[in-house]
Design goal:
single chain; mainly alpha
């Protein structure tokens, strides 16, 4: 069980749950009032952060970790801009 934390498997499990959550929110968009792109950008930042954590724990090339962190930042900014335009 400790290996789940030391090798990043727990982050991958959470990432899978995030993808499932996205799918459910998109399917239930009439009930939630969220548009599909709203859901994607809201959850993408967190998903990219999880990916960066997995890459770091597995000793990936630092450029990949930086790319995942940059993608998280871009997703976050896009989400904020979309929210402020409403």
């Amino acid at each position: 069980m400790i290996a789940w934390f030391t090798d990043g498997t727990i982050f991958l499990a959470i990432l899978v749950l995030t993808v499932i959550e996205s799918a459910v929110l998109i399917v239930l968009r009439r009930a939630t009032g969220l548009r599909p792109f709203d859901v994607v950008f809201q959850l993408a930042a967190g998903a990219f952060l999880l990916l960066a954590a997995v890459l770091a724990l597995r000793g990936a090339y630092f450029g990949l970790i930086g790319a995942a962190l940059a993608a998280a930042g871009v997703s976050h900014v896009v989400d904020l801009v979309r929210r402020l335009q409403k």
